[in-house]
Amino acid sequence: AGFLKDGAFQTSTLEQDKISIVDYYKERGYIDAVVLDTKIEAVFNEEKKQNDLFITFYIQEGAQYTYGGLTIVGNEVFSTSELEKCEKLSIGSVFNDVKFQEGIMEIASLYMNNGYMSASIVPIPNKDVEHHVISYELRISENTRAHVENIIIKGNEKTKDYVILRELPLESGDIFSKSKLTSGLRNLYNLQFFSMVAPQILPGSENNLVDLIINVEEQSTTSLEFGLTF
Questions:
Q1: Helices (H), ranges, 114-177
Q2: How far apart are CA 224 and CA 56, in angstroms?
Q3: Choosing a second label site near 88 at 20 to 30 A (CA), which of 4, 105, 117, 165?
Q4: How many other β-carbons are positioned within 10 Å of the β-carbon of residue 131?
Q5: Is the Cβ–Cβ distance between 160 and 188 less than 8 Å?
């Protein structure tokens, strides 16, 4: 219980706590950690005239693993050395699942920033249970580069299309770039014309084309929301 919380028990919060416990372990190399069960006991508190809950988590920790490295296959656009620079873990260090995923996301962003919207990037784990080492093979299927076919503005009633389009460093025919789109959305946010800016990326008329939809909601206050989802 606190200033903004009444302290009431919520099943959804308990489930989130289980996830948080497992994530805590995985950040520290315990990749097999799992919450096996929970036990909830209610004891009546005479002083407060309420039921107090005592929650016990039963955890199986497993062994702590170190990082054995990343083998990359299928890459042609970017060299293996370029992609390896995205890694956040060094070989022999305690495995950290969060940092590993950050490295994979950076590789994915590298492809998206250069137009490879449909690139498939799949890490396959290889666990050495005897020596407690985990390594990965990263299988990449680059596919073709995507170009912007159309840029369509929706939701604007007072703001002209050209005012919005001039803030976007992308035009029809350009190679799609996630970083350029992010920069353009930031520019629109800074105009302070909109309470919401949200893009949609939809397939175009051909496999290597995409339509960029910019959804905006105009506002007259200084309350702003900036949304970006891929």
A1: 161-165
A2: 42
A3: 117
A4: 10
A5: no
